[in-house]
Amino acid sequence: LKDMWRIWSFAGTLAMVAGALLAGAADGSAGAPRPAHATPEPTLTARVVVPVIAVGAPRPGARARMRLRGVTDWSGSAQRLMVTGRDRDAHGRDWVRVQLPMRPNGSAGWVRADRVRLGATRVRLVVRLGSRRLEGWRGTRRLASWPAGIGRPDTPTPTGRFAIRDPVRFRPSQVGTYGRYTLTLTAHSTALRTFMGGNALVAIHGTGIGRSW
Questions:
Q1: Residues 58, 110: contact at Cβ < 8 Å?
Q2: Can you list the residues of the chain whose pLDDT is less than 50?
Q3: What pLDDT digit, counting tens, does each position of 72-92 carry?
Q4: Strands 52-55 and 64-68: what pairing?
Q5: CA 89, CA 93: separation in Å to the nearest integer?
Q6: How far is CA 81 from CA 2, 71, 120, in A?
Q7: What is d(CA 208, CA 188) in angstroms, rounded to the nearest whole number?
Q8: Residue 204, C-beta contacts closer than 8 angstroms, at least 6 positions apart
Q9: I need a labelling partner for 65 at 20 to 30 A (CA). Which of 17, 103, 109, 210 fits?
Q10: Distance between CA atoms of 205 and 74, rounded to whole angstroms?
């Protein structure tokens, strides 16, 4: 979740090294986004520096939610998660709440602050479902806007605020269908349980711009 992003082709093949994403906020279809989506306040991020168990409450012995490694599953990039809260326990130890890449969407867990390295990003991607547009923002400035394909009615694009987790380069045989890169998110399909042999992650990729999938 570094404060940087690249565009590999105008057709919409993006590779975001990191950043916060607001998916499906658009044009009356999921609540018109206010300028707050382009807020100047940065989104905090937490890079996992040692393997850690995310737990359900900011205290030792709380129920385990998910084991987090220092690298992502697909590309082996540094594991950075979106911070959604902070707290301090009765022993004076600091904790951060992070959004977990698990079902249901929006799941969160707490990790000790000394197990992560905090950072921040002002980069946002906003998906506008009604107009089928993907916008790139940095703080209050909209940097670009592209046509975007969205989910069909039977496989709708999930709405909510998610994070870009993993930039993955496709094999040459897949480029014609999905583009050169895909950006997996901390979101899963609400209609599909599996896709391409794995968990049905939501992702941003190139090709098929402007139509429903």
A1: yes
A2: 1-20, 26, 28-38, 209-210, 213
A3: 988 898 999 999 999 999 999
A4: antiparallel
A5: 5
A6: 11, 11, 10
A7: 20
A8: 14, 16, 21, 125, 134, 164, 182, 183, 185
A9: 17
A10: 15
